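Anyone up for a design puzzle?
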């Protein structure tokens, strides 16, 4: 019987089923596809990604994994605890800098925490700066991409952690503040390298979030996909507390080879086809 088939954006759901099945430390290096991500020097719709997951861990364990991976690669390639990217020295010996998302908005864009946590006040402030935002998430990304991202990780890599809970559909909520989720991203030289979570393991909450995300896509006129019921069923069997990460291999190679265009590190980039 004919079926609609799709390229994967991530092997995440399948790998979490392996965690449910009892595997405790797993990784996969895979090709992934993100439609319409073709603009700029950092994007190719098909790219290589490494994902790894640890059972009985959280995102702090994944932070340390990532630091150790960078340091191992740097020492193996250059015999040093630093590397040079576009003339700047990126230091790894002291670990990555850790900045909460709300702190980054205050440090680099002058948005105080009380404004950041007030949806209407935040949208109003962003619009007052000349951006056009219809909701909190729009305002967040407009300000982040235009005033914050390029400033991150200029001297050493940055772990940007505790994202607003609305931006972490697969992540566990912070136990001490329900406004934020245990999610982090890694930035080096203004470039996003990885996205990680303390994984959400509660099946009812996961299903609720995925359905809400689907409804939001419908409202925005985007393509919609059914919730993966086999994933929810696996969570009902019981997934251990886990941490996981997706790291862009192509961008990692760009950093260590001192390249600014993804076309320099992949065969047949989209723009050449």
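Challenge accepted. My sequence:
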């Amino acid at each position: 019987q004919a079926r609609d088939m799709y390229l994967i954006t991530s092997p995440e759901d399948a790998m979490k089923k392996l965690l449910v099945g009892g595997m405790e430390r797993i990784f996969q290096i895979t090709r992934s596809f993100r439609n319409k991500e073709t603009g700029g020097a950092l994007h190719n719709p098909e790219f290589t990604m490494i994902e790894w997951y640890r059972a009985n861990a959280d995102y702090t364990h994944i932070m340390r994994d990532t630091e150790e991976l960078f340091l191992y690669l740097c020492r193996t390639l250059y015999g040093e605890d630093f590397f040079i990217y576009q003339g700047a020295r990126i230091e790894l010996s002291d670990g990555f800098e850790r900045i909460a998302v709300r702190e980054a908005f205050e440090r680099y864009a002058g948005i105080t925490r009380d404004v950041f946590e007030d949806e209407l006040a935040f949208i109003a402030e962003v619009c007052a700066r000349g951006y056009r935002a219809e909701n909190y998430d729009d305002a967040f990304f407009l300000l982040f991409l235009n005033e914050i991202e390029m400033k991150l990780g200029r001297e050493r890599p940055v772990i940007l952690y505790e994202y607003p809970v609305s931006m972490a559909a697969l992540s566990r909520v912070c136990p001490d503040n329900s406004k934020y989720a245990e999610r982090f991203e890694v930035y080096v030289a203004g470039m996003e390298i990885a996205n990680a979570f303390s994984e959400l393991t509660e099946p009812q909450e996961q299903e609720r979030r995925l359905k809400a995300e689907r409804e939001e896509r419908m409202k925005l006129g985007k393509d919609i996909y059914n919730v993966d019921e086999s994933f929810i069923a696996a969570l009902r069997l019981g997934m251990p507390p886990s941490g996981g990460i997706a790291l862009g291999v192509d961008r990692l190679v760009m950093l260590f080879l001192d390249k600014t265009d993804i076309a320099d590190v992949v065969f047949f980039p989209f723009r050449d086809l």
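A detail worth pointing out: The longest strand covers residues 46-55.
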